[in-house]
Each structure stands twice: as C-alpha cells, then as structure tokens.
Design goal:
By secondary structure, this protein is an alpha+beta fold. The protein is built from 18 helices and seven strands. Helix 4 packs antiparallel against helix 5, helix 9 packs across helix 11 and helix 9 packs antiparallel against helix 15.
C-alpha cells in the first residue's frame, strides 16, 4: 500500500523545504508519491550544509543520503556518500563488538541484561542495519542487579559520566564506547511501570552481525518500549529526534510478525496503553503507516483527547518556529505530557505526588545550598531571557567618534600633559 506524503500544513505547521526533505527521507524505502516530492524539494534547496547538519542532528543522515542518491540523483559527489557510510559503518562494527563483550561479561557474573535500541534495534528492524546510526549501547537490567552491573563495568575500565537515577551513563576512554545502563525505562516520577521478569520470560535471543548472540525484547514488548522512549523524549523536548519516529514506523512495517491482540492486552496490563497508542498514532500522522483495524479501534476509544494531544505534539516538535526552541521553562510541559498519557486516575495522583516531593529528593541528594543556587541561577536566566525578548536588554549602539583635526588632537594632548604635571 502506497504512503502519501504527509501534509503538515493541515495541522497548522508550515515547514521549510529543507525540513520536509529530511522528513520525507527518514525512511528506508519511500514510495513513488514521496519520491516525486523529493525531486521537487531537492530543486528548492540552496543550503545543503544546513540540510546535512540537521539530518545528522536528527539521526537520519544516512537515510537522507541513501534516498537522495537512489531516487533523486542529487548533484552531490559520490565520495560524500562513501565517506559517510564508511565512517558510520566503522562505528557500528565497533559497537557490535562491544555489545558482545559487555553482554558476555554480565552473563558471566549472573546478571540478566536485555539489549535494546542501538545496534540491536538496527539488526531487528532495518533491512540494512548500517542505515541506523547508533552512538551508544542501551542495556536494561533488573533493579536488584543494577549496582552489581555498574560495579562490573567500572572494574573493566568504564567511567561513570552521569547518573540519572533510572539509568547510569558509562564511558570507556580507551575503547571509546558509551553504555547506558538502565534499571528502568524512564524516571520514577513518570510512573511508567514495566515488569522486567515478565519481559525476560518473553525475551528472544538475537544473532548479531558479528557472530555474537544477545538477548532482546520480543516484538510486542519492543514496540511498547519504543513508544515509552518516544514519550520520554517528547516530555523532555531537547532530547527529541526524528529517528525515534522512524524506528517505530519501520517496526510497524513488520506488523504481520506482531501479535496485535497480545500487544494491546500487554500494554493495558502494565498501564501503558495510552502511551503505546499515542506513539502509534503520532507515527501514523508523520509517516502514514498502515495501522491494523484493531489498533485504530483502540485509538477511537481515547478520542478526541488523544488526537488533540498528538496535534499539540506535532506543532511543538515539528514546527521550526516552535516555542520549544525558545528559552522558556520546560517543567510545565513535562508534567502536562506525563499526566495526559497516564491510563488511570491513580497513576495521575502518583505522578502529582512524586513531582511535589521531587525538590525534597533533590535536597536530600545534593544538599540545600547546591539546590538553592541551581534554582536561583535558573530563575535569573529565565528573567534575563524574558527581558531580552521584551527588548529591555538591547545592546547599545556605539557611535563612531567624530573625526578631529590634528591641531585638536595636539591641543588635547598638551592639556592632558599639563594637568598631569600640575598634579
């Protein structure tokens, strides 16, 4: 079934040709209608450097180059595609080697680890796994094994770069490998419940291209996890990238291998039904995927609120003039997004309670003085940004000094020397 090019203007979004070109190319195989649009958009591009930079920022640079050379025959040097592919292929191979080493190491210590996203997701979903650019490894372990797993990696030379509570970012300075070690899929105050033991029972063993074997989610669980990850990035919009929608769209293309009834029942049982349907509906709006009738019926149960939330998200994430790029507080947006996607009232009350005690948790962790300084700095930056927008901090125009004759310069110099000698 052919996919029609998405029309963002009917949702109140007026994208530039550069943005549309990147969006239309963010798939492995655009249909004939989209290919015709690509040819027209490519002729309107004047700044290709901006297009490449934006596509790389969104994680879809290889998709862009692949589709441009395959469908448009853009006037770009072939060496560009070759060099970019070679650079990312080398990175992907390195990550695959490290994935095999890390999962084997954790297994030796009796730690169950589920690999997802990154090279694992590329192997499952994409026909050409090198198209999916990966920058790190994501591993989910049981909460009781989290500290032990972190210690095992630290003993192997990894350095703890950042601890977000629900995950720890580790970095190996010699192997130059990033590992995100998760004990949960999202921060605790999001109330996104996910049973690790049940997921482990349904997990599958995946043979990765370098000959190793890793454990990953079944397709139903993987689709739920990708929707949770998408919502997490939308709640924190500075993390959002178009490749997250591409991952879900490519997985939906393999919907015949997914048990849709089991997917819906599983999402309901863990309180992630609305989040899953939101991710599927947003992907359908952007990439015009073919959702099964059962999923469309479930989406209608949450209408019109779910459709309104998707409309708001599209304007926020896809509009190049969106306020998410302005220096405004993101906290209200984060709370509103998480509350609107909870399945029941009890979950919403838990989210509100956890957000209320969050300052106390920060004080207990970092100390009152550090937290107070942080909030003072935050409000100072916010107030200065507001005044700058109002024009009250406009930079004064420095006028050039008027030209003076040599006689005037000499006279002023003599006066200055006399006053200095007098004093």
């Amino acid at each position: 079934m052919g996919r029609q090019p998405v029309s963002l203007r009917k949702y109140g979004i007026d994208p530039s040709p550069e943005f549309l070109l990147v969006l239309y190319c963010a798939r492995t195989a655009p249909d004939s209608e989209i290919q015709a649009s690509l040819a027209g958009l490519a002729k309107q591009i004047t700044d290709w450097d901006y297009v490449f930079h934006f596509a790389e920022e969104q994680g879809v640079l290889l998709f862009l180059l692949h589709n441009l050379y395959r469908t448009v025959c853009a006037p770009l040097p072939q060496t560009l595609l070759t060099s970019v592919r070679r650079r990312y292929a080398s990175r992907s191979q390195s990550l695959l080697v490290q994935l095999r080493e890390v999962t084997s190491l954790l297994a030796v210590h009796g730690i169950r680890a589920i690999s997802y996203k990154g090279p694992t997701l590329a192997t499952i979903v994409y026909p050409h796994c090198n198209l999916r650019v990966s920058s790190d490894l994501d591993l989910l372990v049981h909460a009781s094994d989290y500290r032990n797993a972190s210690k095992v990696l630290l003993d192997q030379g990894y350095l703890a770069a950042e601890d977000c509570g629900y995950k720890c970012h580790l970095w190996h300075p010699i192997k130059r490998t990033d590992v995100d070690l998760h004990r949960a899929l999202a921060p605790r105050w999001y109330q996104f419940r996910f049973n690790f033991d049940r997921a482990w029972e349904r997990a599958v063993r995946l043979t990765i291209p370098n000959g190793g074997v890793t454990v990953t989610f079944g397709l139903e669980d993987l689709l739920i996890v990708l929707c949770v990850d998408l919502v997490k990035d939308i709640a924190q919009p500075w993390n959002f990238r178009l490749v997250k929608l591409t991952d879900i769209a490519e997985l939906i293309d393999n919907i015949e291998h997914i048990n849709v009834s089991a997917l819906i029942d599983r999402a309901k049982s863990i309180g992630l039904s609305r989040i899953t349907l939101f991710g599927l509906l947003l992907t359908d709006r952007i990439h015009s995927v073919s959702l099964p009738a059962v999923i469309q019926e479930q989406i209608q149960l949450y209408s019109p609120r779910l459709h309104k939330l998707v409309d708001l998200t599209m304007r926020l994430m896809l509009d190049e003039k969106s306020s998410k790029r302005q220096p405004t507080p993101k906290f209200p947006h984060e709370v509103r997004t998480i509350l609107n996607l909870q399945d029941n009232l009890w979950q919403k009350l838990c989210v509100i309670a956890l957000y209320m005690v969050r300052p106390v948790m920060l004080i207990s962790k970092y100390g009152f003085a550090r937290v107070t300084k942080f909030f003072q700095a935050f409000w100072w930056i916010k107030e200065r940004a507001r005044l700058c927008e109002a024009g009250r901090f406009a930079k004064p125009i420095r006028r050039k000094p008027e030209a003076r004759s040599s006689a005037e310069v000499k006279l002023n110099t003599d006066i200055g020397l006399r006053s200095k000698n007098t004093s």
